[in-house]
Design goal:
The chain has twelve helices and no strands. With 286 residues, the protein is mainly alpha-helical. It is globular.
């Protein structure tokens, strides 16, 4: 026989409903710090990969060295390209640094395809780590790799007599620009990897895009001598803004009047690409 349900009387002790204390709710700052902690954890993973295979960085330093030693010296003696009164080698050195950043970053997306084949991407997607943190961590990891290249190019440029700006703030600006440029192109690479999802197709796209991005910029000649249609492309190319900023910050007596615009353009492009990459990142696991 079922027992009658006892209705609560005014004098009865009623157990209070547990309520979540407001202090248990994650605050904005705790969420913000957690996001950056996860992001830099992923950056640390990328840096450890670099430590396991340092020969990759050494071999990648050969190409910019050849550009500076051969192409730079030849055109310095030809004096065929207007450089605003600077020696051509000085004019070219920041462009070769930007080129090195581009060449390292544009093929970073192939690592995403390898990670998918190894099951790493599926583990990342199953974790509570935000997709933006996953993409941004990989982008900054590519930036760290590019900083190693920047060290080699600075050393080579110093040996070759390029007049460098050693102001600490200028050096800090170069570091930030290299990180932002690498983040832009590595995230663009990740987006391509998410769309094609095949190593062979990715390598084809990477090889097709690298040279047009480089030559349709102001890395080795000024925009003013380009035909009008190519000038439009150069002004739409993030690499041009990276080169402009590096040229102003790296060289002694560089023009810093428009560096703020270069920073702004690279930041906006990087933010947009990271958001797109975060939205597409789950596709690579399909």
């Amino acid at each position: 026989m079922t027992q009658p349900v006892h209705a609560a009387q005014p004098g009865d002790l009623v157990e209070p409903i547990p309520q979540r204390h407001p202090s248990h709710e994650p605050s904005f700052w705790s969420s913000f710090l957690s996001f950056f902690e996860k992001t830099f954890t992923l950056v640390g993973l990328e840096v450890r990969k670099m430590r396991h295979d340092p020969t990759d960085l050494i071999t990648r330093a050969v190409q910019p060295a050849l550009w500076l030693l051969i192409f730079g010296n030849v055109f310095t003696h030809l004096r065929a390209i207007p450089t605003g009164g600077k020696p051509y080698l000085d004019f070219m050195a920041p462009g070769i640094l930007a080129q090195s950043v581009l060449f390292i970053s544009i093929f970073a997306g192939i690592a995403i395809i390898w990670e998918r084949d190894l099951g790493v991407v599926h583990k990342f997607l199953a974790s509570p780590t935000p997709r933006i943190a996953l993409v941004l961590g990989k982008a900054l990891g590519a930036g760290i790799r590019s900083l190693v290249q920047a060290f080699f190019i600075y050393l080579l440029a110093l040996i070759m007599g390029v007049q460098m700006n050693w102001n600490p703030l200028a050096l800090l600006g170069v570091i930030v620009i290299v990180l932002m440029g690498a983040s832009c192109f590595s995230t663009f690479s990740l987006i391509i990897a998410c769309l094609v999802r095949s190593r062979e197709r990715f390598m084809g796209f990477g090889q097709v895009l690298t040279m047009p991005l480089f030559f349709a910029s102001n890395a080795i000649y000024p925009v003013a001598i380009m035909p009008p249609w190519l000038q439009v492309i150069a002004h739409s190319n993030p690499l041009s803004y990276e080169v402009d900023a590096l040229r102003g910050l790296m060289l002694a007596g560089g023009d810093l009047s428009m560096v703020w615009l270069d920073f702004l353009v690279l930041f906006v492009v990087m933010a947009a690409l990271v958001l797109i990459g975060a939205a597409l990142y789950p596709r690579v696991a399909q």
